[in-house]
Amino acid sequence: MAEPSVGHPTHTIPQEYVVGGFIMGEQLAMEETQKVLQRGEGPEYEVLIATYPRSGTARIVEIAWLLMNDINVKKAKEVPQGGRHMFLDLCDPTFKTVFGKPLPPVDYPLAKTHLPYHMMEKHAKRDTKIIVGFRNPKDNLVSIYHFYRMNRTLGNFTGTFSEFFQLVKDKHVMYGDIFDFCVGWWNIRDRPNTMYVNYEDLTEDPVREVRRMAEFLGKKVTDQEIIKIVEWTTFGNMAEEKSTNYDSIQHLLDFKISPYMRKGTVGDWKNHFNEEESKYIDEQDQKICAPLGLKFRYEL
């Protein structure tokens, strides 16, 4: 498929640009930063979390951070999540600021990206642990639709879900096509020190998934500590806590349109997708993901 061009009749992101075969917006993430990351440059870190936007990233980041920091819930409550890890894509090209605000000059063992694998291929060759987070594409796209509506850096999309879905079909969504993203990161499953966490599994059995993450990160935790992590990282708690609900970036996000932590459920796509849209995703899934053994659960 041809590389997208800047601008779309349905919606154009403010200061839109094309990088690596997908669209982004300069107000959202600086083009130069993406190129720095593509070259394999940028800060050192121990653990990288790679997710498509709105796939449960904040929860995975919070669990990983707690496991890497002696389950220090007190600090997690005091310091906003954005100040406890490095969001690589949204930093300036020198990685001194994020969201336009200065980053404290400390080491950040935990980093995250929403970039597709081909942009982070050189980073993936580093000797680091990578946690890839997936969410079923239907729920994921509904969440991105609402994010487009509330996000000023994305131009506060005002159209219907069906109008947004046209952007999806035309591969004119920030960070590119969701299936391309998932397949790209799934294709490194034989890389040592790589694990996958599914949103639906985390929703269904958080104790099991936290335990898996602890083992992957080489952290010995008691059952009581796992419960402590699970309780802190429930959707309800993270939506309430100012340190995890991204309350501090309301200059970028309009919470009156939609909260950052919106629903946190599995299957909400049924309230948005029509039959044709649902069939389109099913067909893409069967054609692109199923042959590779990559499976999604669209309901619990």
Automatic annotation (TrEMBL):
Pfam families, per the entry: Sulfotransfer_1
Annotated keywords: Transferase
SUPFAM superfamilies with a match to the protein in the record: P-loop containing nucleoside triphosphate hydrolases
Protein's UniProt keywords contain Transferase: yes
InterPro entries in the record: P-loop_NTPase, Sulfotransferase_dom
Entry similarity comment: Belongs to the sulfotransferase 1 family.
Full protein name: Sulfotransferase domain-containing protein
Organism: Capitella teleta
Lineage, broadest ranks: Eukaryota, Metazoa, Spiralia, Lophotrochozoa, Annelida
